[in-house]
Amino acid sequence: LGGGRSLSPVVLRAGCGLQGRVNGLRGLALPPLGATIDSPAIEEGEWSSVRSELLARAKACKGGFEASREDRKAMEDLIQRVAVWNPTRQPAAAYYAEPAAAGGPEEASLSGEWTLAYTDAPDIISLDQNPLSEVARIGQVCDSSAGTIANVIEWRPRSWLRGQPAASFLEKDLVEQRVVLRAQADPAQPSRVDLFVEGLDLIPRTVLGNPLVGRQLQLRGPLSGRIPFGSFDVLYLDEALRITRTYQGYYAVNVKRDRDAEETQGEMK
User: Fold this and answer.
1) CA 149 to chain CA mean position, Å
2) What percent of the chain has pLDDT over 90?
3) pTM recorded for the entire structure
4) What is the DSSP annotation of 128-169?
5) Theoretical Cys-Cys bridge with 180: which of 9, 163, 198, 261, CB 3.0 to 4.6 Å?
């Protein structure tokens, strides 16, 4: 998994905390953050088509890990089209100091478990280069009641290693790495979430074929929750899909995690 100085810049840039630079948006201009489109002229079929195209292209380029320049441009265009239809007026409301400040009807929430479907952040798409381990999943656990967002990377042995006859016991090995961030939002900027480093958790799920239940290493310090870690803007949020842009301009498309579907897929394999 790496260690020492090489660990921090890798794990501290996952999920919402994706870092980097971008030369601005191209094509369709995004609406002001927090704006929504209520026009009945938007056809359900048209929306479903754009959404399906976004997720299909994300899957085709392996979540951004194998994206070409053309793929990234196409994804940016699709993201901008989806963002115009954002149905949630206050997507950061879950992290207001006073949740009641959101007011109005109940809307979709950032809270819950999310899986990264696509990103164009180099620090993320370059993660999968270790010759012995590979990324099994990247996601987030957004716990608004605790005021935290945990950026999650699940690691497993590479397929060539798991496929060795003498190493078949490694097939289910999995180690979860979490960068825990303190998250805050303000009604004055209803789409922005500010982040502060809380700590690092290492959770070995299965090691050398042996399930490890309740084992966890937590690293915290005297400045936990007070070290700034940038921010992100929520461009789109509904109950199943979330699109964010970091303060430095990189995108992340996340889908709500479906553990039942994951278990079913695992059984089929």
Assistant:
1) 10
2) 62
3) 0.79
4) TT-SSEEEEEEEEEEETTTTEEEEEEEEEE-HHHHTSGGGGG
5) 198
